[in-house]
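A student in our group prepared the protein record below, which I am reviewing. Thanks in advance; the entry in question is below.
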Amino acid sequence: MTASALAGEMNLPLFTILLDGLIIKFMGETAAKLRIIFDAIQSTRAVYLFDEFDAVGGKRETQNDVGEIRRVLNSFLQFLEQEQSDSLIIGATNHPELLDRAVFRRFDDVIEYSTPNEEQIQKVISDRLSILGAKQLGWQRILEEAQGLSYADITNSCNDAAKEAVLADSREVKTESLLKALQSRRKAK
């Protein structure tokens, strides 16, 4: 969501690099694909999001590593150091503890998002559902169910509940609908 917001504010396209398509079992091919990505970063000004970045930026001293990922990380770090474009490169992970220390030195900023407290949860939900009305919601149950979920999970739950309301031709989101959406997000974790 941050990458999307930045791209929107900067009026730039957002490109998401899916690491499952980047990492190949054959030695050297992954680094070659990385070269293609960094060539694109150089030639096309945009926001580039490396999602699930721990797949590439993981610690090099990991015991079960066979060497290829270590070489991929080394290549990525070298490409990043040589990078001189006007593009914005973002690496996102839910597991910062898995990242190699060298990665943190290559990025200008590190932003950590904690889960929202009750006041923030209520604000996110109220803002997201303002068009459909969120005044009649059973807040106590909703706040309990949303505890520990991320901003993105809560926002997406609101979107799901709003879609259900619109499809039911209702102008109001129901508490049960939002609770069901929040529970669904929790189970998906």
Observations:
- Residues 118-188 form a domain with the Helicase, Ruva Protein; domain 3 fold (CATH 1.10.8.60).
- The chain is about 55% helix and 5% strand.
